[in-house]
Amino acid sequence: MSDVHYQSLDMQNAAEKQAKSGKPSPKVIGSIVGLIVLIAIGVTVGVIVSKNNSKEHKSTASSGSSNSSTSGGGSSTTNPNDPSVFTKDERLHRSFYGMAYTPEGSLPDYGCSNSLAGVIKDIQLLSQLTGRIRLYGADCNQTALVLEAIKQTKVDMQVFIGNYVVEGDPTAYERQRDVIKSALQTYGVDHVAGITVGNEFMLNYVVGHNSNDANSAIADEGAAILTANIADTRSMLASLNLPKAIPVGNSDAGSYFNKQVMLAIDYGLSNVHAWFANTTIDAASSWVTTFFEETNVAPAALLPNKPKMYIAETGWPTDSKDISNKNNGAADASVPNLQIFIDKFVCQANTAGIPYFFFEFVDEEWKDIKYGGVEGHWGIFNKDRTLKSLTLPDCSSP
Ligand SMILES: *[C@@H]1O[C@H](CO)[C@@H](O)[C@H](O)[C@H]1NC(C)=O
Ligand SMILES: *[C@@H]1O[C@H](CO)[C@@H](O)[C@H](O)[C@H]1NC(C)=O
Ligand SMILES: *[C@@H]1O[C@H](CO)[C@@H](O)[C@H](O)[C@H]1NC(C)=O
């Protein structure tokens, strides 16, 4: 995993060099968009999940009356023996189509320190925001932990599982495929909406081979690795004789979808970050929807298999480790600006039927340590699961 992130940083540097060397072409912006996601592992699926209303939780205490603004977390288990009994935070609403999620401590390099208790707490919170989450990878047992937490909390939640493919290390794909298979055998597929094979694989591959074209000859060599893994995942799913078809998809930076990959998937998850395209905060939301439509949705619709496209990540950072990275040239990383982005994007995207995974749930400290800049500061919640000073929208999500 560290290699992957290291490569991502190299790519970021390469893209920054590109950006500085000339006027920003859409491709450069695309690579910048791609950079964005240093994140961990990724998965997605293009399945339509039925939304639910929020009646599924059995709340004992009257919901919303907790002192969560000072106590932190926004929910609390009221019966330690039954995680399905928890108080809800009246500040939270199931207004988000989906949310990007990596259980804390789910990277082998960081010792696999995740825990079922931590994931249960997160799922209790996430279920108050959305009915869908996407994971980035499957290391450190995170697939089983998430499905177990959904089982115990009894929340209405669909998961796009992830398999983080690593160039030059086929065992990474195989290891994750095997634990995903095992999790599906244990938990079934009621809460599984898809399996995303690869996260920013093409971005890393293309930039790592000194190209900037996701459809160059060298890019097609990388795509062949990915399409073989996608086919293998389909075989694994077929071998399980599952009661429903599980879509298989891929996640990448917005400008790095290779045509061969697109032809192999049921759905694509695209990272679209206005921050890295240096928009103003006021222009950010419309930039995201326009970029996504033009760069991802329209081209996908022209393919015979018509993969369903989702925004894999979009959001706005609230802070930076260092002052120099605290603005994108046009707007600051700040909580008020995240508020503006949420206000302009979330309910409008729901109304427009744009499927998206908001980025992201909580601040991720390991990214702050490893990458600096704004990387660790995209959360709606702080790393301790207290809500930032935000007013979350109350609208229905499809
Ligand atoms: C909530 O906070 C108020 C004021 O800080 C305090 O008086 C009250 O005891 C708290 N209630 C609970 C349940 O913690
Ligand atoms: C993975 O997580 C599940 C659910 O908590 C647990 O039952 C299983 O023992 C875990 N496996 C490992 C290897 O930790
Ligand atoms: C965005 O702004 C930063 C500095 O604020 C600059 O380094 C970068 O090249 C800019 N990117 C684009 C695409 O204009």
From TrEMBL:
Keywords on record: Carbohydrate metabolism, Cell membrane, Cell wall, Cell wall biogenesis/degradation, Glycoprotein, Hydrolase, Membrane, Polysaccharide degradation, Secreted, Signal, Transmembrane, Transmembrane helix
EC number: 3.2.1.39
Swiss-Prot/TrEMBL catalytic activity: Hydrolysis of (1->3)-beta-D-glucosidic linkages in (1->3)-beta-D-glucans
Residue span of region Disordered: 1-25, 54-87
Membrane-spanning segments: 28-49
Membrane topology recorded in Swiss-Prot or TrEMBL: Single-pass type II membrane protein
Entry GO CC: cell surface; extracellular region; fungal-type cell wall; plasma membrane
Cellular location(s): Cell membrane; Secreted, Cell wall
InterPro entries: Beta-glucan_modifiers, GH, Glyco_hydro_17
Matching PANTHER family: GLUCAN 1,3-BETA-GLUCOSIDASE, GLUCAN ENDO-1,3-BETA-GLUCOSIDASE BTGC
Name of the protein this chain belongs to: glucan endo-1,3-beta-D-glucosidase
Alphabetical GO biological process terms: cell wall organization; polysaccharide catabolic process
Pfam families: Glyco_hydro_17
Keyword Transmembrane set for record: yes
Protein family: Belongs to the glycosyl hydrolase 17 family.
Role this protein plays: Glucanases play a role in cell expansion during growth, in cell-cell fusion during mating, and in spore release during sporulation. This enzyme may be involved in beta-glucan degradation. Active on laminarin and lichenan.
Residue ranges, compositional bias (Low complexity): 60-70
Top enzyme class: hydrolase
GO MF entry, a single one: glucan endo-1,3-beta-D-glucosidase activity
